[in-house]
Amino acid sequence: MILLKFTAVVLLAVCSEAVTRPGVAPLIELNDGKTIPSLGLGTWLGFTKSGDRVPVNDDSVQKAVELAIDAGYRHIDTAAVYSTEEQVGAAIKKKIEEGAVARGDLFVTSKLWNNNHAKSAVVPALKESLARLGLEYLDLYLIHWPIAQTEHSAYADIDYVETWQGMMDAQAAGLAKSIGVSNFNVTQLDRLISMSKVKPAALQIEVNLNLQQTELLNFCKAQNIAVIGYTPFGSLFHGKAAADAPPPRSDDQALLKIADRHHKTVAQINLRYLIELGVIPIPKSVTKKRIEANIEVFDFQLNQQERDVLKSFDKNYRTIAVTQWKDSPYYPFNK
């Protein structure tokens, strides 16, 4: 595998390798010395148009993970709240038993939910995730949100700095090789770094054409924190776009011209652009053709004119705004 240091020059390194390694996700070195593949499979099924979570009512996630491993993915992302950990674990177990992959080849991420933010609750919650996954350790464990809640979804008065102390305990115990956060803003990240002995290895946030998060990406590059991008397609597809979502869609003529120039799909152009921004995208799909296509983005690179076109779609539009928490003092999207 290719090993890349996550520094300000990662983009150039990725681009220099891009033309020779189709279908391979190069490894990026984290600030703790571990490595992470630069593209992964997301397993969150998302929201319905009515705002409810898409239910997990079949084994499509397990099959998707199996297909992804066969296609060369080595980075799988899940979370306690997704209700997909059991299926992710079943797929990993099957592929290991088949000899297709070894545990050490895989990078598995899960996340701590809001109702386990007390320092003493972190390790037990992680152990529950590991039991569902059938694993002895995670490669990356993230605080899912900076917002603490009770079992009944009321806000809990727990500072995420306390939660981070529990995360450090989990890492020290060998239950998580690396630890990080998700959905934190610059102010929250900076505060956490200033008050902790261990810097987050990674930040997972929404990044797509409509929400390119320049300030946050620049902060993370300066701090040597890897950025993992969820919802990488944003509102690209008509069937997923809200009525108020800005363009582009997958039939946008400018995007189609770029895709045609590289003999790629618009979705692949989208993913390639995020990678060139220094983001590790984790597209989700349960469709074999799309799973296979999504990782075929390391055999070409965009030119500056193309990147300028893609940059023009940045409208600071957030697909996942979780406005039900906007009155929390820890709500991350006010800044």
TrEMBL record:
Which Gene3D superfamilies does this one have?
Answer: NADP-dependent oxidoreductase domain (3.20.20.100)
Matching entries from PROSITE patterns are given as: ALDOKETO_REDUCTASE_1, ALDOKETO_REDUCTASE_2, ALDOKETO_REDUCTASE_3
Q: Which residues does the UniProt site feature Lowers pKa of active site Tyr point to?
A: 111
Q: What is this protein called?
A: NADP-dependent oxidoreductase domain-containing protein
Q: Which PANTHER family does the entry mention?
A: ALDO/KETO REDUCTASE
Which InterPro entries did the record assign? AKR (IPR020471), Aldo/ket_reductase_CS (IPR018170), NAD(P)_OxRdtase_dom_sf (IPR036812), NADP_OxRdtase_dom (IPR023210)
GO molecular function list: oxidoreductase activity, acting on the CH-OH group of donors, NAD or NADP as acceptor
* Pfam families reported in the protein's UniProt record: Aldo_ket_red
Active-site positions, per UniProt? Answer: 82 (proton donor)
Q: Would you indicate the residue range of the signal peptide?
A: 1-18
Q: Where is the NADP-dependent oxidoreductase domain?
A: 39-313
- Residues binding substrate, per UniProt: 144
Q: Which UniProt keywords apply?
A: Oxidoreductase, Signal
